[in-house]
TrEMBL record:
It comes from Sapajus apella (Brown-capped capuchin). It holds the Pfam family Enolase_C. Gene3D superfamilies: Enolase-like C-terminal domain, Enolase-like, N-terminal domain. InterPro entries: Enolase, Enolase-like_C_sf, Enolase-like_N, Enolase_C, Enolase_N. This is phosphopyruvate hydratase. Residues 49-218 form the Enolase N-terminal domain. Residues 147-160 have a biased composition (Pro residues). Belongs to the enolase family. The gene is ENO4. It comes from the Eukaryota.
Length: 582
């Protein structure tokens, strides 16, 4: 027995020695000993009161606000790259100097205090930038010796010609109001990403010290440090194909055709289903085109045949395909679902990212929905109504118009808001502006896409989701177009309890990483018995009279009750529930 025991002990010792050698080689290859020595030496010279806090290391990545332009001119790409580099350099400088000094001595557990100091710091930087610009402007004016001649006003437009056969008093539909000019782009202060990055780093550090995953730390922040008994996974919004301006086909309207698995499906089941659909799309793209069928009129009035669908992978993680009619991508997905035994409107639903701001041709004052096909804002409302009538499985329109077309946002909300989510993404203001104004009703919508970028702190995300919830809107947590491989935004979406998460397609490493993180979190919640369930798609629609009554009651701080109608995806009234005006 003794010899047996000695043999086992000897074997264990050899295994430990082997592991130690492997560990030493691994650390040496990654330059760990030298870096640790530098860190310990700097700690000794600094002699911080909180040694362990000083040694805590947390890395974060935050995406920039810059959009990805696939067909951008080299000159534009160079300018944007220079701006991006400058912004990152300024952010690093802020973090290494001023922000580090501002946060010295603050415990990472006090997220609210950290975010408050970050906001103050950022406000001072905004004021500095404003003062600098005003000084530059005054210096420019002082150097002008000769006043410039006034610019003559443009000549008035010619009076509209009356169409032949037009009845007296009838409004000529050809007479159109001039479009509102594009609003100035909301300025982004160079270096602002430092604020969002540091706020996220503090939240991650707090989670590490408490041995909590980031999503739980955010949930505690959202619920005033009371741990929720259940957490629901956000519903997937997965981009399957793109038929926007960057595609080679005639169709411009659909920057993203998005699939939403049924709420009763788990995240894993939803991803598996969508991967199967994506696989079939890829096969069709690779197949040679079938012979052309008989010509029919398409949904937009153009000719529809069996055109060959070609595609390439986009930065959105989905295929950019060339389509020549509005119906073509929808029929494609519909056919694939039918072959797989899936039913659109039951097993899954669709959403369309229209990217209205990209479609406007300002020289014509119209939206170019297809190459050479232009529609004014009023005609666009009719187009969307017809589309939803023909394809009721579409339950969300993202950015159907540019933000300046307020009347059309109102019109489409009142026309389709009871059976479809009208979601503002690019058309919405930044989170900072929304919180400053306390108003998410412009443009009129029942959902917002929120993103963690620039100066957005964890406290800002909690505040904006609380505001969205209070207005009976839905929150969609989205990724930026220039996406990184950091998966923290998935934890943020789960912790904040948003309704949807929009990460792009199921391809490209930076997006696949996030889908994998979703699967990991779902597994953890299942194991802990804390996975909540998602409800059916419900559209909270208030008519104008009810909204005005709510506003009046809020202004008077009255406690009376209203009865909004809650509608399910099928459009049937499911319940009339009494809800307080608050």
């Amino acid at each position: 027995m003794g010899e047996e025991g000695g043999g086992r002990s000897c074997g264990t010792t050899r295994e430990l020695q082997k592991l130690k050698q492997q560990a030493m080689e691994y650390y040496r290859e990654n330059d760990v000993p030298r870096r640790l020595e530098e860190l310990l030496n700097s700690t000794f010279y600094l002699q911080p009161a909180d040694v362990y806090g000083h040694l805590s290391i947390c890395s974060v990545v935050i995406s920039t606000h810059f959009e990805v332009h696939e067909n951008a001119l080299p000159e534009l790409a160079e300018v944007e790259e220079a701006e991006r580099t400058s912004a990152v350099s300024t952010a690093v400088q802020w973090v290494n100097s001023s922000i580090t000094h501002e946060l010295q001595g603050i415990a990472p557990f006090d997220q609210a205090e950290v975010d408050h100091l970050l906001r103050k710091f950022f406000a001072s930087k905004v004021q500095e930038d404003k003062d600098r610009k005003e000084l530059e402007k005054s210096l420019e004016y002082s150097t002008v010796l000769i006043p410039l001649p006034p610019v003559p006003p443009p000549p008035p437009p010619p009076p509209p010609t009356k169409k032949k056969g037009q009845k007296p008093g009838r409004k000529d539909t050809a007479t159109e109001k001039p479009i509102a000019p594009a609003e100035p782009v909301e300025p982004v202060l160079s270096g602002s990403m430092a604020i969002g990055a540091v706020s996220l780093a503090v939240a991650k550090t707090c989670g590490m010290l408490l041995n909590n995953p980031l999503y739980l730390n955010i949930a505690l922040l959202k619920h005033n440090q009371e741990q929720p008994t259940m957490l629901s996974m956000p519903l997937l919004m997965v981009s399957l194909v793109s038929c926007g301006k960057s595609s080679s086909g005639k169709l411009n309207l659909m920057k993203e055709v998005i699939c939403i698995p049924h709420p009763e499906l788990t995240t894993k089941q939803g991803i598996e289903m969508l991967m199967e659909i994506q696989k079939h799309i890829n096969k069709i793209i690779e197949m040679p085109s079938p012979p052309k069928a008989e010509t029919k009129k398409g949904h937009d009035g153009s000719k529809r045949g069996q055109q060959q669908i070609t595609g390439k992978m986009s930065h959105l993680g989905c295929l950019t395909i060339s389509c020549d009619t509005i119906e073509q991508p929808l029929v494609l997905i519909q056919g694939i679902c039918a072959n797989l035994g899936l039913e659109l409107g039951t097993n899954l639903h669709l959403a369309i990212n229209c990217a209205g701001h990209e479609l406007m041709d300002y020289s014509k004052g119209k939206y170019e929905v297809m190459m050479g096909t232009y529609k004014n804002a009023v005609e666009m409302v009719d187009l969307y109504v017809d589309l939803i009538n023909k394809y009721p499985s579409i339950i969300a329109l993202i950015d159907p118009f540019r933000k300046e077309d307020f009347e059309q946002w109102d019109s489409i909300y009142h026309t389709l808001g009871s059976r479809c989510y009208i979601i503002a993404g690019t058309a919405s203001k930044s989170i900072s502006k929304l919180l400053e104004q306390g108003n998410i009703g412009i443009p009129k919508s029942n959902g917002l896409i929120i993103k963690h970028t620039n100066q957005t702190t964890m406290s800002d995300l909690v505040e904006i989701t609380n505001l969205i919830d209070s207005k009976k809107h839905i929150a969609v947590f989205g990724s930026t177009e220039g996406e990184s491989s950091d998966d923290s935004l998935v934890d943020l979406a789960v912790g904040l309890g948003v309704r949807f998460i929009k990460l792009g397609g199921l391809s490209r490493g930076e997006r696949v990483t996030k889908y994998n993180r979703l699967l990991t979190i779902e597994e953890e919640l299942v194991q802990n018995g804390t996975l909540g369930f998602n409800e059916e798609h419900t559209f909270f629609y208030f008519n104008e009279e009810a909204e005005m009554a709510v506003e009046a009651l809020e202004a008077a701080a009255a406690g009376e009750l209203l009865e909004p109608t809650f509608l399910t995806q099928s459009g049937e009234e499911s319940a009339k529930t009494r809800a307080s005006s608050g």
